[in-house]
Amino acid sequence: GQNIDQPTEMTATEGAIVQINCTYQTSGFNGLFWYQQHAGEAPTFLSYNVLDGLEEKGRFSSFLSRSKGYSYLLLKELQMKDSASYLCAVRSNYGGSQGNLIFGKGTKLSVKP
Amino acid sequence: ETGVTQTPRHLVMGMTNKKSLKCEQHLGHNAMYWYKQSAKKPLELMFVYSLEERVENNSVPSRFSPECPNSSHLFLHLHTLQPEDSALYLCASSQALDRAYYGYTFGSGTRLTVV
Q: Which of A12, A24, A37, B97 lies at a C-alpha separation of 20 to 30 Å from A95?
């Protein structure tokens, strides 16, 4: 089967750094995505990792370890507008699927002044 | 505006009603998806279309009926729904099924309430 775990909620302070972890168990792994979703809005693409290592994009970085089934999203210099849900999603070819994205439940991040 | 437009944004319907959700994209993408997002649950994949052909149906009840008349439009026809079908229904598109490393582009969703 397939399973994706991430914390339900996190709180951090404006200007700080926060790390949101994601662990997954899946067959036919073919990439991991992070999405940001503000309340009542569309999820928006943040990052994609398919090889081990760190991908940096401005204030956001994403890390992947395929051997550990582990990823994290690192947000630096937090701003109030970063308050949102962060969705971890794995692309898998499990069960002969076309490689669709399977999502975790999301981590609701609250940034406090 | 994400490039994927969903209408209506909000819908309240009775269990005996028939309604349709509409999704439109003008990104030149060839694959389109319907997802269901319920509170405290992960996004659930419902249907996948590639070049207007349904390629996946994840055991969705027959009261949900998708339609893809062309690569830019996707519909979800609803009839005799149950209260537990109340959720946010998200449409997404990608360049192609095997090129999703560019990520999916999601619409803002339709918030459906079944009464």
A: A37
Residue among B40, B56, B109 minimizing CB distance to A98:
B56
Task: Choose from B97, B106, B108, B110 for mutation: most chain A CBs within 10 A.
Answer: B106
Q: What is the C-alpha separation between A35 and A57, in angstroms, rounded? A: 13
Q: And the tokens for A80?
A: 């109030």
Along chain A (113 residues), what's the average pLDDT of each consecutive run of 10 residues? Answer: 90 98 90 93 91 94 97 98 96 68 93 96
CA B57 – CA B33 distance, rounded (Å): 10
Which residues in chain B are closer than 8 Å to A103, comparing Cβ atoms?
35, 42-43
B48 vs A contacts (CB less than 8 Å): 98, 100
CA–CA distances in Å: residue A66 to residues A18, A30, A72, A88, B2: 22, 10, 12, 14, 31
Q: What is the rounded average pLDDT for all residues in chain B?
A: 90
Tokens 């519909």 locate to: B75
Q: Say whether A91 and B100 touch across the interface (CB within 8 A).
A: yes
Contact yes or no for B61/B47 (Cβ under 8 A): no
Per-10-residue mean pLDDT for chain B, 115 residues long? 88 93 94 91 90 80 94 95 95 78 86 95
Sign of the torsion formed by the C-alpha atoms of A64, A65, A70 and A76: negative
Answer yes or no: do B50 and A45 touch at CB < 8 A. no
| Residues B115 and B12 sit within 8 Å (Cβ to Cβ) | yes
